[in-house]
Protein backbone atom coordinates (compact mmCIF):
# COMPACT_ATOMS: atom_id res chain seq x y z
CA UNK A 1 0.00 0.00 0.00
CA UNK A 2 1.46 3.38 -1.02
CA UNK A 3 1.64 6.06 1.63
CA UNK A 4 0.90 9.49 0.20
CA UNK A 5 2.58 12.49 1.74
CA UNK A 6 1.32 16.08 1.21
CA UNK A 7 3.23 17.82 -1.56
CA UNK A 8 4.06 20.73 0.71
CA UNK A 9 5.79 18.36 3.14
CA UNK A 10 7.65 16.59 0.34
CA UNK A 11 9.07 19.79 -1.10
CA UNK A 12 9.93 21.36 2.24
CA UNK A 13 11.60 18.32 3.77
CA UNK A 14 13.30 17.02 0.62
CA UNK A 15 13.11 13.33 -0.40
CA UNK A 16 10.20 11.61 1.37
CA UNK A 17 10.24 7.78 1.04
CA UNK A 18 7.17 5.63 0.55
CA UNK A 19 8.65 2.99 2.84
CA UNK A 20 9.78 3.25 6.47
CA UNK A 21 13.31 4.61 6.73
CA UNK A 22 14.64 1.37 8.29
CA UNK A 23 13.77 -0.67 5.22
CA UNK A 24 16.08 1.47 3.11
CA UNK A 25 19.14 0.32 5.01
CA UNK A 26 18.74 -3.24 3.72
CA UNK A 27 20.38 -2.64 0.38
CA UNK A 28 22.05 0.09 -1.63
CA UNK A 29 19.49 -0.46 -4.36
CA UNK A 30 16.84 0.92 -2.03
CA UNK A 31 18.80 4.17 -1.81
CA UNK A 32 18.45 4.61 -5.57
CA UNK A 33 14.74 3.88 -5.55
CA UNK A 34 12.85 6.17 -7.95
CA UNK A 35 10.22 7.65 -5.73
CA UNK A 36 6.88 7.80 -7.48
CA UNK A 37 3.50 8.64 -6.10
CA UNK A 38 0.13 8.43 -7.75
CA UNK A 39 -2.33 11.15 -6.90
CA UNK A 40 -5.56 11.86 -8.77
CA UNK A 41 -4.51 9.46 -11.48
CA UNK A 42 -1.29 11.37 -12.25
CA UNK A 43 2.11 9.86 -11.58
CA UNK A 44 4.71 12.31 -10.30
CA UNK A 45 8.33 11.22 -10.53
CA UNK A 46 10.06 13.12 -7.77
CA UNK A 47 13.45 11.72 -8.68
CA UNK A 48 13.07 13.29 -12.10
CA UNK A 49 11.84 16.51 -10.52
CA UNK A 50 14.94 16.62 -8.35
CA UNK A 51 17.07 16.26 -11.47
CA UNK A 52 15.12 18.91 -13.33
CA UNK A 53 17.49 21.70 -12.24
CA UNK A 54 20.31 19.71 -13.79
CA UNK A 55 18.45 19.42 -17.09
CA UNK A 56 17.42 23.06 -17.10
CA UNK A 57 20.64 24.38 -15.65
CA UNK A 58 21.77 25.97 -18.90
CA UNK A 59 18.45 27.77 -19.31
CA UNK A 60 18.57 29.14 -15.77
CA UNK A 61 22.21 30.11 -16.16
CA UNK A 62 21.32 32.11 -19.27
CA UNK A 63 18.40 33.77 -17.46
CA UNK A 64 20.66 34.56 -14.52
CA UNK A 65 23.18 36.07 -16.91
CA UNK A 66 20.48 38.26 -18.48
CA UNK A 67 19.26 39.36 -15.05
CA UNK A 68 22.82 40.18 -13.99
CA UNK A 69 23.34 42.24 -17.16
CA UNK A 70 20.07 44.13 -16.58
CA UNK A 71 21.05 44.80 -12.97
CA UNK A 72 24.47 46.03 -14.06
CA UNK A 73 22.92 48.31 -16.69
CA UNK A 74 20.47 49.65 -14.13
CA UNK A 75 23.34 50.50 -11.81
CA UNK A 76 25.16 52.43 -14.54
CA UNK A 77 22.02 54.34 -15.54
CA UNK A 78 21.30 55.18 -11.89
CA UNK A 79 24.79 56.61 -11.46
CA UNK A 80 24.38 58.65 -14.64
CA UNK A 81 21.14 60.17 -13.39
CA UNK A 82 22.77 60.97 -10.06
CA UNK A 83 25.56 62.78 -11.93
CA UNK A 84 23.05 64.73 -14.02
CA UNK A 85 21.13 65.87 -10.93
CA UNK A 86 24.35 66.93 -9.23
CA UNK A 87 25.50 68.87 -12.30
CA UNK A 88 22.13 70.65 -12.35
CA UNK A 89 22.90 71.92 -8.86
CA UNK A 90 20.66 69.54 -6.92
CA UNK A 91 21.52 67.85 -3.65
CA UNK A 92 21.10 64.16 -4.44
CA UNK A 93 21.26 63.34 -0.74
CA UNK A 94 18.17 65.30 0.22
CA UNK A 95 15.13 63.25 1.15
CA UNK A 96 13.09 63.86 -2.00
CA UNK A 97 15.90 62.79 -4.32
CA UNK A 98 17.42 59.85 -2.45
CA UNK A 99 15.81 57.26 -4.69
CA UNK A 100 15.16 59.46 -7.71
CA UNK A 101 18.16 58.24 -9.75
CA UNK A 102 17.06 54.63 -9.27
CA UNK A 103 13.43 55.42 -10.11
CA UNK A 104 14.48 57.33 -13.21
CA UNK A 105 16.76 54.47 -14.29
CA UNK A 106 13.94 51.94 -13.95
CA UNK A 107 11.58 54.25 -15.81
CA UNK A 108 14.05 54.64 -18.67
CA UNK A 109 14.50 50.88 -18.92
CA UNK A 110 10.73 50.47 -19.16
CA UNK A 111 10.31 53.27 -21.69
CA UNK A 112 12.93 51.65 -23.94
CA UNK A 113 12.05 47.99 -23.37
CA UNK A 114 11.14 47.63 -27.04
CA UNK A 115 14.82 47.16 -27.88
CA UNK A 116 14.62 43.71 -26.28
CA UNK A 117 11.40 42.65 -28.02
CA UNK A 118 10.74 41.43 -31.55
CA UNK A 119 7.63 40.93 -33.64
CA UNK A 120 8.52 37.24 -33.94
CA UNK A 121 8.22 36.89 -30.17
CA UNK A 122 4.72 38.33 -29.94
CA UNK A 123 3.26 36.94 -33.19
CA UNK A 124 4.11 33.34 -32.34
CA UNK A 125 0.97 31.20 -32.87
CA UNK A 126 -1.15 34.32 -33.46
CA UNK A 127 -1.34 34.21 -37.27
CA UNK A 128 -4.24 32.20 -38.64
CA UNK A 129 -5.34 30.94 -42.04
CA UNK A 130 -8.61 32.64 -42.87
CA UNK A 131 -10.51 33.14 -46.13
CA UNK A 132 -10.92 36.87 -45.62
CA UNK A 133 -9.76 39.57 -48.01
CA UNK A 134 -11.62 42.67 -46.82
CA UNK A 135 -10.03 45.53 -44.95
CA UNK A 136 -9.21 45.06 -41.25
CA UNK A 137 -8.79 48.26 -39.23
CA UNK A 138 -7.69 48.81 -35.64
CA UNK A 139 -7.74 52.51 -34.84
CA UNK A 140 -7.10 54.82 -31.90
CA UNK A 141 -4.27 52.70 -30.51
CA UNK A 142 -2.65 54.74 -27.73
CA UNK A 143 1.09 55.17 -28.10
CA UNK A 144 3.78 56.80 -26.00
CA UNK A 145 7.36 57.19 -27.12
CA UNK A 146 10.50 59.26 -26.49
CA UNK A 147 11.84 61.71 -29.01
CA UNK A 148 15.42 60.68 -29.70
CA UNK A 149 16.51 64.30 -30.10
CA UNK A 150 15.56 65.61 -26.66
CA UNK A 151 14.48 62.49 -24.72
CA UNK A 152 11.08 63.99 -23.99
CA UNK A 153 7.78 62.23 -24.75
CA UNK A 154 5.57 62.32 -27.77
CA UNK A 155 2.22 60.62 -27.58
CA UNK A 156 -0.94 60.10 -29.59
CA UNK A 157 -2.89 57.53 -31.58
CA UNK A 158 -2.01 54.99 -34.23
CA UNK A 159 -4.47 53.74 -36.85
CA UNK A 160 -3.64 50.50 -38.63
CA UNK A 161 -5.28 48.70 -41.54
CA UNK A 162 -4.32 45.71 -43.64
CA UNK A 163 -5.84 43.74 -46.49
CA UNK A 164 -5.51 40.04 -45.59
CA UNK A 165 -4.03 37.62 -48.08
CA UNK A 166 -5.65 34.47 -46.64
CA UNK A 167 -4.00 35.19 -43.27
CA UNK A 168 -5.19 37.22 -40.29
CA UNK A 169 -3.53 38.12 -37.00
CA UNK A 170 -4.92 38.42 -33.49
CA UNK A 171 -6.10 42.03 -33.21
CA UNK A 172 -4.25 42.70 -29.96
CA UNK A 173 -1.01 41.82 -31.72
CA UNK A 174 -1.30 44.95 -33.86
CA UNK A 175 -1.34 47.04 -30.69
CA UNK A 176 1.63 45.02 -29.38
CA UNK A 177 3.61 45.84 -32.53
CA UNK A 178 2.92 49.52 -31.90
CA UNK A 179 4.15 49.02 -28.33
CA UNK A 180 7.39 47.31 -29.40
CA UNK A 181 8.49 50.11 -31.72
CA UNK A 182 7.18 53.02 -29.66
CA UNK A 183 9.09 51.83 -26.57
CA UNK A 184 12.35 52.96 -28.15
CA UNK A 185 14.02 56.27 -28.84
CA UNK A 186 12.16 57.38 -31.94
CA UNK A 187 11.17 59.91 -34.52
CA UNK A 188 7.56 59.68 -35.61
CA UNK A 189 8.38 59.20 -39.27
CA UNK A 190 10.53 56.12 -38.62
CA UNK A 191 8.09 54.72 -36.07
CA UNK A 192 5.27 54.81 -38.63
CA UNK A 193 7.37 53.02 -41.24
CA UNK A 194 8.63 50.37 -38.80
CA UNK A 195 5.10 49.44 -37.74
CA UNK A 196 3.93 49.15 -41.34
CA UNK A 197 6.98 47.14 -42.42
CA UNK A 198 6.68 44.73 -39.48
CA UNK A 199 3.04 43.96 -40.31
CA UNK A 200 3.83 43.57 -44.00
CA UNK A 201 6.71 41.17 -43.36
CA UNK A 202 4.75 39.07 -40.86
CA UNK A 203 1.46 38.71 -42.77
CA UNK A 204 2.42 39.31 -46.41
CA UNK A 205 -0.94 41.04 -46.94
CA UNK A 206 -2.22 42.75 -50.08
CA UNK A 207 -1.64 46.08 -48.39
CA UNK A 208 -0.84 47.83 -45.11
CA UNK A 209 -1.68 51.36 -43.98
CA UNK A 210 -0.50 53.12 -40.82
CA UNK A 211 -1.32 56.65 -39.71
CA UNK A 212 0.00 58.20 -36.49
CA UNK A 213 -1.25 61.43 -34.94
CA UNK A 214 0.91 62.69 -32.09
CA UNK A 215 1.78 65.66 -29.93
CA UNK A 216 5.47 66.24 -29.26
CA UNK A 217 6.55 67.66 -25.92
CA UNK A 218 9.73 68.99 -27.55
CA UNK A 219 7.44 71.46 -29.34
CA UNK A 220 5.18 72.08 -26.34
CA UNK A 221 7.44 72.23 -23.26
CA UNK A 222 10.47 73.82 -24.94
CA UNK A 223 11.54 75.40 -28.20
CA UNK A 224 8.63 77.03 -30.04
CA UNK A 225 6.18 76.03 -27.25
CA UNK A 226 3.17 75.55 -29.54
CA UNK A 227 0.70 73.71 -27.32
CA UNK A 228 -1.89 72.89 -29.98
CA UNK A 229 0.45 71.58 -32.66
CA UNK A 230 0.13 67.95 -33.72
CA UNK A 231 2.01 65.84 -36.23
CA UNK A 232 0.45 63.34 -38.64
CA UNK A 233 2.52 60.75 -40.49
CA UNK A 234 1.42 57.95 -42.79
CA UNK A 235 2.83 54.96 -44.60
CA UNK A 236 0.86 53.17 -47.33
CA UNK A 237 2.04 49.85 -48.74
CA UNK A 238 0.64 47.60 -51.46
CA UNK A 239 -2.91 48.37 -52.58
CA UNK A 240 -3.18 51.24 -50.09
CA UNK A 241 -0.38 52.89 -52.04
CA UNK A 242 -1.45 51.88 -55.52
CA UNK A 243 -5.25 52.16 -55.34
CA UNK A 244 -6.65 55.62 -54.49
CA UNK A 245 -10.10 54.17 -53.69
CA UNK A 246 -8.72 51.74 -51.11
CA UNK A 247 -6.66 54.52 -49.54
CA UNK A 248 -9.68 56.82 -49.52
CA UNK A 249 -11.81 54.19 -47.73
CA UNK A 250 -9.16 53.73 -45.04
CA UNK A 251 -8.75 57.46 -44.43
CA UNK A 252 -12.51 57.99 -44.34
CA UNK A 253 -12.97 55.28 -41.71
CA UNK A 254 -10.08 56.30 -39.48
CA UNK A 255 -9.58 60.06 -39.73
CA UNK A 256 -13.16 61.27 -39.38
CA UNK A 257 -13.85 62.92 -36.02
TrEMBL record:
<keyword id="KW-0783">Tetrahydrobiopterin biosynthesis</keyword>
<dbReference type="Pfam" id="PF01227">
    <property type="entry name" value="GTP_cyclohydroI"/>
</dbReference>
<dbReference type="GO" id="GO:0005737">
    <property type="term" value="C:cytoplasm"/>
</dbReference>
<comment type="similarity">
    <text>Belongs to the GTP cyclohydrolase I family.</text>
</comment>
<dbReference type="GO" id="GO:0006729">
    <property type="term" value="P:tetrahydrobiopterin biosynthetic process"/>
</dbReference>
<dbReference type="InterPro" id="IPR043134">
    <property type="entry name" value="GTP-CH-I_N"/>
</dbReference>
<dbReference type="InterPro" id="IPR001474">
    <property type="entry name" value="GTP_CycHdrlase_I"/>
</dbReference>
<keyword id="KW-0342">GTP-binding</keyword>
<dbReference type="InterPro" id="IPR020602">
    <property type="entry name" value="GTP_CycHdrlase_I_dom"/>
</dbReference>
<feature type="domain" description="GTP cyclohydrolase I">
    <location>
        <begin position="77"/>
        <end position="253"/>
    </location>
</feature>
<dbReference type="InterPro" id="IPR043133">
    <property type="entry name" value="GTP-CH-I_C/QueF"/>
</dbReference>
<keyword id="KW-0547">Nucleotide-binding</keyword>
<keyword id="KW-0378">Hydrolase</keyword>
<dbReference type="InterPro" id="IPR018234">
    <property type="entry name" value="GTP_CycHdrlase_I_CS"/>
</dbReference>
<dbReference type="GO" id="GO:0005525">
    <property type="term" value="F:GTP binding"/>
</dbReference>
<dbReference type="GO" id="GO:0003934">
    <property type="term" value="F:GTP cyclohydrolase I activity"/>
</dbReference>
<protein>
    <recommendedName>
        <fullName>GTP cyclohydrolase 1</fullName>
        <ecNumber>3.5.4.16</ecNumber>
    </recommendedName>
</protein>
<comment type="pathway">
    <text>Cofactor biosynthesis; 7,8-dihydroneopterin triphosphate biosynthesis; 7,8-dihydroneopterin triphosphate from GTP: step 1/1.</text>
</comment>
<dbReference type="GO" id="GO:0046654">
    <property type="term" value="P:tetrahydrofolate biosynthetic process"/>
</dbReference>
<dbReference type="GO" id="GO:0008270">
    <property type="term" value="F:zinc ion binding"/>
</dbReference>
